[in-house]
Hints:
Blueprint: H1 13-16, H2 20-32, H3 39-45, H4 61-82, H5 88-99, H6 101-111, H7 121-125, H8 132-150, H9 152-175, H10 179-189, E1 196-203, E2 210-217, E3 220-227, H11 230-244
Antiparallel strand pairs: 1-2, 2-3
Amino acid sequence: xxxxxxxxxxxxxxxxxxxxxxxxxxxxxxxxxxxxxxxxxxxxxxxxxxxxxxxxxxxxxxxxxxxxxxxxxxxxxxxxxxxxxxxxxxxxxxxxxxxxxxxxxxxxxxxxxxxxxxxxxxxxxxxxxxxxxxxxxxxxxxxxxxxxxxxxxxxxxxxxxxxxxxxxxxxxxxxxxxxxxxxxxxxxxxxxxxxxxxxxxxxxxxxxxxxxxxxxxxxxxxxxxxxxxxxxxxxxxxxxxxxxxxxxxx
Length: 250
């Protein structure tokens, strides 16, 4: 489904090797649950610029550009749906952990898309089929092809299903992200001055000293925390400040 006036190239017999290419792509789509219908578009998405064919097909680079945008929006959409009260900085941090090349290459390997990628002989012999950058590019170009062929809702559903394990991992890591870092990120996301922590009291013997720390936001006291070290008291104060700002601290 596309609003573009550009005509999708048909799969020529020279490209298909008697239908073998289309059969290969159909098998891949069924195996990974890719609900694409335009296999010419999928073939382009999995064709590297080095591919040596009698009638060269356009390679995946334009679709990769589109797929990158689709992936970024789909992950952002899913993040907001799962945790609608986080800061832009927090969203960006989690999203970056999901849409990077390492993660994309990992998913491409998990889906085993490498055998379906068309490469030139030189790229093949140099191990290009297993290069992380190439696999990541093809993963994005597939998403671009799916979006053009079936539209946003189908592309979003596929991204959510395939990328959810990586998103779960990033969100699990986010839960143990320390309160002080979260508070600083909260301030950066709202373009306000970073929090200021001040020890307001310490008592007890050196080997068992207790600290009380106050944190200020916007120049005003925002919370106090206590602990057996300055760092522990700062974390507690940051937790209180986040709660006062209406942020769920789990």
